[in-house]
Amino acid sequence: MKILVTGAAGFIGYHLCESLLNKGFTVIGIDSINDYYDQGLKFGRLQELGVAKAEAETPLKKCLSSKHGSKFSFVRLNLEDKENLSNLFEKEKFNVVCNLAAQAGVRYSLENPSAYVDSNIVGFVNLLECCRHHQIEHLVYASSSSVYGLNKKVPFSTNDNVDHPISLYAASKKSNELMAHTYSHLFGIPTTGLRFFTVYGPWGRPDMALFLFTDAIIKNKSIDVFNHGNMERDFTYIDDIVEGVERILVEPIAKRKERSLYKIYNIGNNNTVKLTDFIESIESKLGITAQKNMLPMQPGDVSRTWANVDDLINDYNYSPNTPIKEGVSKFIDWYKGYYNI
Protein backbone atom coordinates (compact mmCIF):
# COMPACT_ATOMS: atom_id res chain seq x y z
CA MET A 1 0.00 0.00 0.00
CA LYS A 2 1.33 3.42 -0.98
CA ILE A 3 -0.07 6.25 1.15
CA LEU A 4 -0.09 9.99 0.48
CA VAL A 5 -0.03 12.13 3.63
CA THR A 6 -0.63 15.84 3.06
CA GLY A 7 0.56 18.22 5.77
CA ALA A 8 3.44 15.82 6.46
CA ALA A 9 5.56 18.52 8.13
CA GLY A 10 2.68 19.41 10.44
CA PHE A 11 2.06 18.24 13.97
CA ILE A 12 -0.32 15.36 13.26
CA GLY A 13 1.11 14.65 9.80
CA TYR A 14 4.62 14.09 11.12
CA HIS A 15 3.46 11.68 13.82
CA LEU A 16 1.26 9.77 11.37
CA CYS A 17 4.10 9.40 8.85
CA GLU A 18 6.46 8.13 11.53
CA SER A 19 3.95 5.57 12.77
CA LEU A 20 3.02 4.32 9.28
CA LEU A 21 6.67 3.98 8.33
CA ASN A 22 7.44 2.03 11.49
CA LYS A 23 4.71 -0.40 10.45
CA GLY A 24 6.26 -0.91 7.02
CA PHE A 25 4.02 1.18 4.77
CA THR A 26 5.35 3.24 1.87
CA VAL A 27 4.57 6.91 2.47
CA ILE A 28 4.93 10.06 0.39
CA GLY A 29 4.46 13.29 2.31
CA ILE A 30 3.72 16.72 0.93
CA ASP A 31 3.59 20.08 2.69
CA SER A 32 3.77 23.73 1.63
CA ILE A 33 5.78 24.59 4.77
CA ASN A 34 4.06 27.97 5.04
CA ASP A 35 5.05 30.58 7.60
CA TYR A 36 1.90 30.49 9.77
CA TYR A 37 4.21 29.43 12.60
CA ASP A 38 7.93 28.72 13.03
CA GLN A 39 9.13 26.92 9.91
CA GLY A 40 12.07 25.62 11.91
CA LEU A 41 9.70 23.37 13.81
CA LYS A 42 8.34 21.98 10.53
CA PHE A 43 11.80 21.32 9.14
CA GLY A 44 12.71 19.77 12.49
CA ARG A 45 9.86 17.27 12.14
CA LEU A 46 11.01 16.41 8.63
CA GLN A 47 14.54 15.88 9.90
CA GLU A 48 13.12 13.37 12.39
CA LEU A 49 11.73 11.54 9.34
CA GLY A 50 15.17 11.61 7.71
CA VAL A 51 14.68 14.53 5.30
CA ALA A 52 17.30 17.27 5.49
CA LYS A 53 16.20 20.90 5.54
CA ALA A 54 18.44 21.77 2.60
CA GLU A 55 16.63 19.15 0.54
CA ALA A 56 13.09 19.94 1.69
CA GLU A 57 13.40 23.69 1.05
CA THR A 58 13.26 23.24 -2.74
CA PRO A 59 9.70 23.22 -4.15
CA LEU A 60 8.63 20.13 -6.14
CA LYS A 61 11.87 18.25 -5.44
CA LYS A 62 11.34 14.64 -4.38
CA CYS A 63 13.47 14.13 -1.27
CA LEU A 64 14.28 10.62 -0.09
CA SER A 65 14.64 9.80 3.60
CA SER A 66 18.05 8.90 4.99
CA LYS A 67 16.24 7.13 7.85
CA HIS A 68 13.55 5.17 6.01
CA GLY A 69 15.11 4.87 2.54
CA SER A 70 12.69 4.53 -0.35
CA LYS A 71 9.83 3.91 2.07
CA PHE A 72 9.49 7.66 2.65
CA SER A 73 9.89 10.63 0.36
CA PHE A 74 8.86 14.26 0.71
CA VAL A 75 7.78 16.87 -1.82
CA ARG A 76 7.30 20.55 -0.98
CA LEU A 77 3.98 21.26 -2.65
CA ASN A 78 0.74 22.98 -1.72
CA LEU A 79 -2.75 21.78 -2.55
CA GLU A 80 -3.57 24.94 -4.49
CA ASP A 81 -1.02 23.89 -7.14
CA LYS A 82 -3.52 21.87 -9.16
CA GLU A 83 -1.24 20.93 -12.04
CA ASN A 84 1.68 19.65 -9.99
CA LEU A 85 -0.62 17.91 -7.54
CA SER A 86 -2.24 16.02 -10.41
CA ASN A 87 1.19 15.17 -11.83
CA LEU A 88 2.20 13.71 -8.47
CA PHE A 89 -0.90 11.50 -8.38
CA GLU A 90 -0.26 10.34 -11.94
CA LYS A 91 3.35 9.45 -11.20
CA GLU A 92 3.04 7.83 -7.79
CA LYS A 93 -0.18 5.78 -8.12
CA PHE A 94 -1.32 6.14 -4.51
CA ASN A 95 -3.69 3.61 -3.00
CA VAL A 96 -5.06 5.81 -0.22
CA VAL A 97 -4.79 9.46 0.79
CA CYS A 98 -4.82 11.10 4.22
CA ASN A 99 -5.38 14.85 4.00
CA LEU A 100 -4.03 16.68 7.04
CA ALA A 101 -2.93 19.80 5.16
CA ALA A 102 -4.92 22.89 6.06
CA GLN A 103 -4.63 26.45 7.20
CA ALA A 104 -5.10 25.90 10.92
CA GLY A 105 -6.22 28.16 13.75
CA VAL A 106 -9.60 29.52 14.76
CA ARG A 107 -8.42 33.00 15.76
CA TYR A 108 -6.16 33.52 12.75
CA SER A 109 -9.16 32.96 10.47
CA LEU A 110 -10.50 36.30 11.70
CA GLU A 111 -7.31 38.01 10.51
CA ASN A 112 -6.56 36.27 7.22
CA PRO A 113 -9.70 34.62 5.82
CA SER A 114 -8.33 34.25 2.28
CA ALA A 115 -5.70 31.78 3.52
CA TYR A 116 -8.51 29.45 4.62
CA VAL A 117 -10.35 29.74 1.32
CA ASP A 118 -7.17 28.98 -0.65
CA SER A 119 -5.91 26.03 1.39
CA ASN A 120 -8.99 24.51 2.99
CA ILE A 121 -11.49 24.96 0.17
CA VAL A 122 -9.68 25.39 -3.16
CA GLY A 123 -6.94 23.00 -2.10
CA PHE A 124 -9.44 20.40 -0.91
CA VAL A 125 -11.38 20.52 -4.19
CA ASN A 126 -8.10 19.97 -6.06
CA LEU A 127 -7.41 16.94 -3.89
CA LEU A 128 -10.90 15.53 -4.46
CA GLU A 129 -10.44 15.92 -8.20
CA CYS A 130 -7.16 14.02 -8.03
CA CYS A 131 -8.82 11.24 -6.03
CA ARG A 132 -11.61 11.11 -8.61
CA HIS A 133 -9.37 10.84 -11.65
CA HIS A 134 -6.71 8.53 -10.19
CA GLN A 135 -8.82 5.74 -8.68
CA ILE A 136 -7.96 6.41 -5.04
CA GLU A 137 -9.36 3.64 -2.86
CA HIS A 138 -10.03 5.76 0.22
CA LEU A 139 -9.69 9.43 1.18
CA VAL A 140 -9.38 10.13 4.90
CA TYR A 141 -9.34 13.82 5.82
CA ALA A 142 -9.08 15.99 8.91
CA SER A 143 -12.19 17.82 9.96
CA SER A 144 -12.47 19.50 13.35
CA SER A 145 -14.52 19.65 16.53
CA SER A 146 -14.96 23.35 15.72
CA VAL A 147 -17.75 22.42 13.27
CA TYR A 148 -20.05 21.93 16.29
CA GLY A 149 -19.99 25.69 16.79
CA LEU A 150 -22.70 26.89 19.16
CA ASN A 151 -24.14 23.42 19.82
CA LYS A 152 -25.26 23.14 23.44
CA LYS A 153 -25.93 19.39 23.70
CA VAL A 154 -22.94 17.42 24.96
CA PRO A 155 -21.17 15.21 24.28
CA PHE A 156 -21.04 16.27 20.64
CA SER A 157 -22.31 13.54 18.31
CA THR A 158 -21.76 13.12 14.58
CA ASN A 159 -25.56 12.92 14.36
CA ASP A 160 -25.90 16.50 15.61
CA ASN A 161 -26.71 19.38 13.29
CA VAL A 162 -23.57 21.40 12.55
CA ASP A 163 -24.99 24.26 10.52
CA HIS A 164 -23.91 27.04 12.88
CA PRO A 165 -20.10 27.44 12.77
CA ILE A 166 -18.74 30.55 14.48
CA SER A 167 -15.41 30.90 12.68
CA LEU A 168 -14.33 30.73 9.05
CA TYR A 169 -11.97 27.91 10.00
CA ALA A 170 -14.94 25.88 11.23
CA ALA A 171 -16.95 26.79 8.15
CA SER A 172 -14.10 25.64 5.89
CA LYS A 173 -13.98 22.28 7.68
CA LYS A 174 -17.73 21.87 7.39
CA SER A 175 -17.41 22.62 3.68
CA ASN A 176 -14.84 19.80 3.40
CA GLU A 177 -17.39 17.37 4.78
CA LEU A 178 -20.03 18.57 2.34
CA MET A 179 -17.70 18.38 -0.66
CA ALA A 180 -16.51 14.91 0.35
CA HIS A 181 -20.13 13.75 0.57
CA THR A 182 -20.75 15.07 -2.95
CA TYR A 183 -17.76 13.20 -4.41
CA SER A 184 -18.68 10.00 -2.57
CA HIS A 185 -22.21 10.24 -3.93
CA LEU A 186 -21.37 11.23 -7.51
CA PHE A 187 -18.18 9.27 -8.14
CA GLY A 188 -18.22 6.42 -5.60
CA ILE A 189 -15.10 7.58 -3.76
CA PRO A 190 -14.95 6.26 -0.18
CA THR A 191 -14.33 9.27 2.08
CA THR A 192 -13.98 9.48 5.85
CA GLY A 193 -13.89 12.75 7.78
CA LEU A 194 -12.31 12.85 11.23
CA ARG A 195 -13.36 15.52 13.70
CA PHE A 196 -10.30 15.96 15.91
CA PHE A 197 -10.72 17.31 19.44
CA THR A 198 -7.92 19.57 20.81
CA VAL A 199 -4.89 17.52 19.85
CA TYR A 200 -1.76 17.99 21.97
CA GLY A 201 1.60 16.35 22.59
CA PRO A 202 5.28 16.45 21.58
CA TRP A 203 6.08 18.48 18.45
CA GLY A 204 2.77 20.34 18.93
CA ARG A 205 1.93 23.65 17.31
CA PRO A 206 3.26 26.84 18.97
CA ASP A 207 -0.13 28.57 18.67
CA MET A 208 -1.89 25.95 20.83
CA ALA A 209 -2.54 26.45 24.54
CA LEU A 210 -0.15 23.81 25.89
CA PHE A 211 2.81 25.20 23.94
CA LEU A 212 1.92 28.82 24.69
CA PHE A 213 1.41 28.18 28.41
CA THR A 214 4.54 26.07 28.85
CA ASP A 215 6.70 28.55 26.96
CA ALA A 216 5.39 31.54 28.92
CA ILE A 217 5.57 29.90 32.35
CA ILE A 218 9.17 28.75 31.82
CA LYS A 219 10.12 32.26 30.68
CA ASN A 220 8.36 33.81 33.70
CA LYS A 221 5.78 35.53 31.51
CA SER A 222 2.06 35.77 32.15
CA ILE A 223 -0.47 33.58 30.32
CA ASP A 224 -3.80 34.69 28.86
CA VAL A 225 -6.70 32.70 30.33
CA PHE A 226 -9.83 33.32 28.28
CA ASN A 227 -13.41 33.32 29.53
CA HIS A 228 -11.88 33.85 32.98
CA GLY A 229 -10.91 30.18 33.05
CA ASN A 230 -14.47 28.92 32.55
CA MET A 231 -13.53 26.68 29.64
CA GLU A 232 -13.57 22.92 29.16
CA ARG A 233 -11.85 20.94 26.45
CA ASP A 234 -11.76 17.33 25.33
CA PHE A 235 -7.96 17.14 25.10
CA THR A 236 -6.74 14.26 22.92
CA TYR A 237 -3.15 13.03 23.02
CA ILE A 238 -1.35 12.81 19.67
CA ASP A 239 -0.64 9.05 19.85
CA ASP A 240 -4.35 8.39 20.38
CA ILE A 241 -5.20 10.50 17.34
CA VAL A 242 -2.68 8.65 15.18
CA GLU A 243 -3.97 5.26 16.33
CA GLY A 244 -7.50 6.21 15.32
CA VAL A 245 -6.42 7.62 11.95
CA GLU A 246 -4.36 4.52 11.16
CA ARG A 247 -7.12 2.07 11.93
CA ILE A 248 -9.44 3.87 9.55
CA LEU A 249 -6.84 4.60 6.87
CA VAL A 250 -5.46 1.09 6.37
CA GLU A 251 -8.69 -0.88 6.83
CA PRO A 252 -9.34 -3.23 3.88
CA ILE A 253 -11.37 -1.31 1.34
CA ALA A 254 -14.00 -4.03 0.94
CA LYS A 255 -14.76 -3.82 4.65
CA ARG A 256 -14.79 -0.03 4.46
CA LYS A 257 -17.39 -0.08 1.69
CA GLU A 258 -19.64 -2.37 3.73
CA ARG A 259 -20.22 0.48 6.16
CA SER A 260 -20.75 3.46 3.89
CA LEU A 261 -18.93 5.31 1.15
CA TYR A 262 -19.20 8.46 3.28
CA LYS A 263 -18.55 8.51 7.02
CA ILE A 264 -17.71 10.98 9.78
CA TYR A 265 -16.09 10.10 13.12
CA ASN A 266 -15.21 12.05 16.25
CA ILE A 267 -11.75 11.31 17.64
CA GLY A 268 -11.57 12.64 21.18
CA ASN A 269 -10.88 11.47 24.71
CA ASN A 270 -14.62 11.36 25.49
CA ASN A 271 -14.29 13.51 28.61
CA THR A 272 -13.71 17.14 29.46
CA VAL A 273 -10.91 18.85 31.35
CA LYS A 274 -11.37 22.25 32.94
CA LEU A 275 -8.93 24.86 31.69
CA THR A 276 -7.89 25.61 35.27
CA ASP A 277 -7.07 21.90 35.84
CA PHE A 278 -5.15 21.82 32.58
CA ILE A 279 -3.04 24.77 33.73
CA GLU A 280 -2.49 23.11 37.11
CA SER A 281 -1.10 20.03 35.32
CA ILE A 282 1.46 22.22 33.57
CA GLU A 283 2.34 24.05 36.79
CA SER A 284 2.76 20.76 38.64
CA LYS A 285 5.10 19.30 36.04
CA LEU A 286 7.18 22.49 35.82
CA GLY A 287 7.11 23.23 39.54
CA ILE A 288 6.21 26.85 38.73
CA THR A 289 3.01 28.79 39.41
CA ALA A 290 1.71 30.63 36.37
CA GLN A 291 0.98 34.36 36.28
CA LYS A 292 -2.53 34.56 34.84
CA ASN A 293 -4.27 37.29 32.85
CA MET A 294 -7.98 36.54 33.22
CA LEU A 295 -9.68 37.69 30.02
CA PRO A 296 -13.14 37.49 28.39
CA MET A 297 -14.03 34.96 25.70
CA GLN A 298 -12.29 35.36 22.35
CA PRO A 299 -14.37 35.79 19.17
CA GLY A 300 -14.84 32.48 17.36
CA ASP A 301 -14.14 30.41 20.48
CA VAL A 302 -16.47 28.06 22.37
CA SER A 303 -16.64 27.37 26.08
CA ARG A 304 -16.85 23.57 25.93
CA THR A 305 -16.00 20.62 23.69
CA TRP A 306 -16.71 16.96 24.38
CA ALA A 307 -16.60 14.06 21.91
CA ASN A 308 -19.08 11.21 21.66
CA VAL A 309 -16.93 8.40 20.21
CA ASP A 310 -19.54 5.62 20.14
CA ASP A 311 -19.18 5.17 16.37
CA LEU A 312 -15.40 4.84 16.66
CA ILE A 313 -15.84 2.19 19.36
CA ASN A 314 -18.54 0.32 17.45
CA ASP A 315 -16.75 0.28 14.09
CA TYR A 316 -13.10 0.03 15.16
CA ASN A 317 -13.19 -1.08 18.80
CA TYR A 318 -11.14 1.98 19.67
CA SER A 319 -11.35 4.91 22.04
CA PRO A 320 -8.57 7.38 23.03
CA ASN A 321 -7.68 7.17 26.71
CA THR A 322 -4.41 8.96 27.57
CA PRO A 323 -4.82 10.88 30.87
CA ILE A 324 -4.16 14.60 30.68
CA LYS A 325 -1.34 14.56 33.26
CA GLU A 326 0.52 11.87 31.32
CA GLY A 327 0.16 13.70 28.02
CA VAL A 328 1.17 17.08 29.46
CA SER A 329 4.22 15.50 31.10
CA LYS A 330 5.37 13.98 27.80
CA PHE A 331 4.96 17.29 25.99
CA ILE A 332 6.96 19.21 28.57
CA ASP A 333 9.73 16.59 28.47
CA TRP A 334 9.88 17.03 24.69
CA TYR A 335 9.77 20.84 24.95
CA LYS A 336 12.69 20.93 27.39
CA GLY A 337 14.70 18.57 25.22
CA TYR A 338 13.98 20.39 21.97
CA TYR A 339 14.86 23.82 23.39
CA ASN A 340 17.75 22.55 25.55
CA ILE A 341 16.21 23.69 28.82
Strand order of the largest sheet: 3-4-2-1-5-6-7-12
User: What's the structural domain tally?
Assistant: 1
Q: Could you give the distance between the termini?
A: 41 Å
Poorly predicted runs are none
CATH architecture descriptor: 3-Layer(aba) Sandwich
Radius of gyration: 19 Å
What does it look like?
This protein has 341 residues and is of the alpha/beta class. It has one domain: Rossmann fold (3-Layer(aba) Sandwich), CATH 3.40.50. The chain is built from 13 helices and 14 strands. The chain has helices spanning 11-22, 39-48, 53-56, 82-92, 108-111, 113-133, 168-187, 209-218, 238-249, 253-259, 275-286, 310-316, 324-338, and strands spanning 2-6, 26-31, 62-65, 69-76, 96-99, 138-144, 191-196, 199-200, 222-225, 232-233, 236-237, 262-267, 273-274, 291-294. It has an 8-stranded mixed beta sheet with strand order 3-4-2-1-5-6-7-12, with helices on both faces. It has a two-stranded parallel ribbon with strand order 8-11. The protein has a two-stranded parallel ribbon with strand order 9-14. α4 (82-92) runs parallel beside α6 and α6 runs parallel beside α7 (168-187). The protein is globular. The model has no long low-confidence stretch (mean pLDDT 95).
What can be said about this structure in brief?
This protein has 341 residues and is α/β, with parallel strands linked by helices. The chain contains 13 helices and 14 strands.
Layout of strands and helices, then pairs:
Elements: E1 2-6, H1 11-22, E2 26-31, H2 39-48, H3 53-56, E3 62-65, E4 69-76, H4 82-92, E5 96-99, H5 108-111, H6 113-133, E6 138-144, H7 168-187, E7 191-196, E8 199-200, H8 209-218, E9 222-225, E10 232-233, E11 236-237, H9 238-249, H10 253-259, E12 262-267, E13 273-274, H11 275-286, E14 291-294, H12 310-316, H13 324-338
Parallel strand pairs: 1-2, 1-5, 2-4, 5-6, 6-7, 7-12, 8-11, 9-14
Antiparallel strand pairs: 3-4, 10-13
Helix pairs in contact: 1-9, 4-6, 6-7, 8-11, 11-13
